[in-house]
Amino acid sequence: MSDNREYRSRRFAQLVGLELKGEFAKHSISQTKVAEILGHSKGGYSKWINAKPSMPLEAFLNTCELIEADPKAVIDASYKRLLDELGTPDEYRERQNQITDDLIDRIAAHPEDYDVAANRDPNARLEAETPDD
To answer: What range defines the domain where residue 53 resides?
Structure first.
């Protein structure tokens, strides 16, 4: 999985957890109580809510049904927040590519400002002066 997709999916899982936390407050039930009723450990359930690792779909559905939250609304709100933060996948990818291109341009313009291995290569000057065969 590419780093972009991995970051977006991890952030989405975090946003789902945040939406669920809002639902807990809205329905006046604690995360601990939900974990207890569903038969999960407090620590394990907390990790799911905080997306470390992501919550399994079964646990998500059980949570929503227990607290009477609409799973589709939770997902939709989470995805809207993801788009607000990161844009569409194409927009996000383009923004990351632009950041990379800008960094490459800055390094090329001022290599002395960056600690790159090529700046410490004793053969770099010799290689630059030697024509390719």
So the answer is: 3-87
